């Protein structure tokens, strides 16, 4: 009985085991796994303890264009920092433009006459306005005009002595006949600087030097029987007055006043114009002023090489180059980099790539980021700031898809960033499935282009881009 | 004689022996026949399974979008196959089911030799992709004077419906949208444009700005590269486009080359 039970148990367990095994086989054969995912995300990352040095590329196809662009932008920078500050009346309309690098000595518009009145012996002629002039106001300050005689011609009289004068219709009438002007102005130095100046105005003043006189040397007397006698004037000068004297400026004196006023106005305007030009147009931060302006002009003149400006390759120099010309060259560079110059790009790191085998209908979206550090080495005699300011170039990166034979089958639109700001680069591109053949091997790699800087900049600094790390995120999708 | 009688077999013994031998031979023959039958059956099934796998591999080569629904049939040798692809939804999220059936004749083990059929059946499910990408590239679509960035309001980059940085999307579920765009500028007359003047670009969804506005210096940055996250868009049709304008009325800017990439994903 026990033996029978034992054999029965063995047979039962065996049956259960066989049944379970058969069932598992049946499930596996009827229900396979899900279809494989249509999406995969791959990630490549590399950081460098010693940065990869991306040196400037020397690509003949683009070098001349890049040189021209560097030159053009430097020229524009000089013009911006230190524009022409020499005065030229271009249209002969007394509107003075800052358009030329002519030196002060050779430009007649800088040749202002000197002031003739000194503050030492002529109070009120100091010109503080010229030290900080209001350049938006074209009127001269009027400071030296104060040294000229007053144009009022007022005779000097002493009312305490019973003398009196009155002004009627611009002409003075007085009770005395030997008066001289109250304000005879200051003594000009040099004396002959102003036309019509008579030294006797100050050394031996007499009435006839300043006013019209009759044969007796006195101003004409107007008596109460004269038709020109005005009782109102007489009443204003005194009671029961039967005569008074008429003081009209002499032609010599009025001519001097006119000359003096004109001279002062001219000098003041010229000095103000020069001051405004020198201080207002030369904007170098370190030391604004005419000296820097001239230095900037000198640099520009020394910088004056020929640049060919696309599209007609017109030859221009710094004097004639404009921002639009720099743009035209930059556009030609873009054309070049988008087309024939694409070979100028250099692989950043030959050991950094994403290798894959294309599946059918698979497209790629590639995000790439580069951690970079611009490296500027100033030349002897230049500070780092000066060197950085002198660099006006870009750092370009692209992603390429390379097939097994090394041919480029897809190239992204380039990413462009100012060299000095290329510390962080992030961009994306999309590789359509039509570029990829199913079953073939491909690699995604990152390339850069850093223009080699030449001309003046080479004398100021050398550059390279230090690559500290790179990342690629590749999204592969079959849709 | 005794010796002879001792050595010979009787007829009965012979008959019994022959019967036993016959039974033995019949048994062995039966075993052999059964073996051949099972081998043949296994071979047919293996071939049917192989054919089903082959059809499945063909389906696997297709993506969710290209896997067309419907029924297709065919015959290869003794095998009749049927593929049925059907669409389904679960909570608004679509999925597809592919069923592969291979039917073949089976020889029964028995005297009547009557024919029966056997089949193998595979079922697979294809989930809706949770990541999508779309892209559009326009190139040399504008000459100088066209595609000018106008001052005032932003407009879609490009010149005509087919050459605009604009993509229509239609996903059955809501998606997070990441947009990247690259624009290579061309310059016409740039008189009056200052170094500080900008080109402003922004991503719009259904005509509404959905990303931060990005300013790029016109004169010094002839290539605009940007990646923006525009957030979640609901299920259904949407138009995503890149728009721009200048912050100056001066200058003439056009497009040399541009592309736009959309990555839609589910969180």
Features:
heterodimer, A: 479 residues, alpha+beta, 6-stranded antiparallel β-sheet, B: 267 residues, 4-stranded antiparallel β-sheet, 2 helices, 14 strands
The helical percent of chain B reads 10-25%
Radius of gyration of chain A: 46 Å
Report the uncertain regions of chain B: none
Query: What is the typical, i.e. mean, pLDDT of chain B?
Result: 84
The arrangement of helices and strands of chain A along the chain is HEHEEEEHHEHEHHEEHEEEHEEEEEHE
Distance between the termini of chain A: 69 Å
Distinct helical segment count of chain B: 2
Number of helical stretches of at least 4 residues of chain A: 10
Number of distinct beta strands of chain A: 18
Can you give the helix content of chain A as a percent range? 25-40%
Largest sheet of chain A: 6 strands, antiparallel
Largest interface, by Cβ-Cβ below 8 angstroms: which chains and how many residues each?
Answer: A-B, 46 and 49 residues
Q: Tell me the overall shape of chain A.
A: rod-shaped
Relative strand content of chain A = 25-35%
